[in-house]
């Protein structure tokens, strides 16, 4: 009976791989995925790199978990629980990462170009800061940067107080370079200051922030890989103890503490592994 189940599980794993690979090819053929229409596909398969290796890795984990369940109920529970919990932990961690660090980094990447657009348009129009800002807004590629400034421009053209609107616009950002940029625009509008020199200084500050965010990404990834190594050693220690001491198997099987140790180890192991995959993909997307 177990042999038939194992064969069926291998066939199911093959079907799983073919289905995932078909989805990947469809997405690559269609190009960019609309996140509003299908967030699942957009989350997993919107990268520019081929995803055959990642699909294969998760298929192997899927098949291994099923084979372990068929061969050993106890080991199967450990692997399946760790795999399920680990993927959930990895998704949560990577979602938090992408929403905070990724958005901040994209802003740091776009901001120097945005400031240079303002500077070039300001020089070309002999000092028209309104047109310069509108030109930069029209050519900005990042909605999170473009939309707040577009709202500012609309209200400014309707006669609203620029300084008050600039203070409102600051609430959309946590980037001090953007705050200083708004202050420089207000100062130029009401007279005084050296707008071109301020723009050059702010563009350099934005580049420095981008380089700092790159270093922070590398440091964070290094910390995650270190944690992955620690959890791997912990899991290895659990396995060695269980093999060396027959009572260890009973400890991990029948006690709440033993189950907790193994569960946390497996969940952390697969969670950090999953997050490492996502960070590698995230880095490729940024390149």
Describe this structure in words.
Helix 6 (143-157) packs antiparallel against helix 7, helix 7 (162-170) packs antiparallel against helix 8 and helix 10 (246-254) packs across helix 11 (256-286). The protein starts with a helix and ends with a helix. Among the domains are: 1-71, no CATH class; 109-210, no CATH class. It has eleven helices and no strands. Residues 30-52 and 282-287 have low confidence and may be disordered. With 287 residues, the protein is mainly α.
Main features:
287 residues, mainly alpha, 0% strand, disordered C terminus
Backbone shape: elongated
Please provide the ordered H/E string of secondary-structure elements: HHHHHHHHHHH
C-alpha Rg (nearest Å):
26 Å
Low-confidence stretches: 30-52, 282-287
Q: What's the tally of helices? A: 11
Intertermini distance? 50 Å
Helix content: over 70%
Protein name: Type II secretion system protein GspF domain-containing protein
Keywords: Membrane, Transmembrane, Transmembrane helix
Organism: Effusibacillus lacus
Transmembrane segments: 6-23, 55-72, 78-97, 218-244, 256-277
């Amino acid at each position: 009976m177990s042999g038939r189940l194992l064969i069926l599980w291998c066939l199911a794993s093959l079907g799983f791989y073919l289905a995932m690979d078909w989805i990947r090819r469809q997405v690559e053929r269609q190009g960019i995925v609309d996140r509003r229409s299908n967030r699942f596909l957009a989350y997993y398969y919107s990268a520019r790199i081929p995803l055959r290796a990642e699909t294969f890795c998760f298929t192997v984990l899927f098949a291994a978990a099923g084979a372990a369940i068929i061969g050993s109920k106890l080991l199967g529970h450990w692997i399946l629980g760790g795999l399920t919990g680990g993927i959930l932990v990895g998704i949560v961690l990577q979602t938090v990462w992408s929403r905070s660090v990724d958005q901040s980094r994209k802003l740091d990447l776009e901001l120097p170009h945005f400031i240079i657009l303002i500077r070039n348009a300001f020089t070309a129009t002999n000092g028209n800061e309104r047109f310069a800002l509108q030109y930069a807004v029209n050519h900005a590629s990042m909605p999170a940067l473009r939309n707040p400034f577009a709202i500012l421009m609309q209200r400014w053209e309707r006669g609203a107080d620029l300084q008050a609107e600039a203070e409102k616009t600051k609430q959309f950002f946590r980037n001090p370079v953007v705050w200083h940029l708004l202050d420089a625009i207000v100062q130029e509008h009401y007279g005084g200051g050296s707008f071109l020199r301020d723009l050059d200084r702010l563009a350099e500050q934005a580049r420095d922030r981008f380089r700092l965010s790159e270093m922070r990404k590398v440091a964070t990834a290094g910390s995650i890989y270190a944690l992955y190594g620690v959890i791997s050693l912990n899991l290895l220690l659990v396995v060695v103890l269980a093999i060396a001491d027959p009572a260890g198997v009973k400890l991990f099987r029948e006690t709440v503490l033993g189950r907790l140790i193994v569960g946390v180890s497996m969940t952390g192991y697969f969670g950090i592994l999953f997050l490492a995959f996502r960070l590698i993909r995230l880095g490729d997307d940024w390149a």
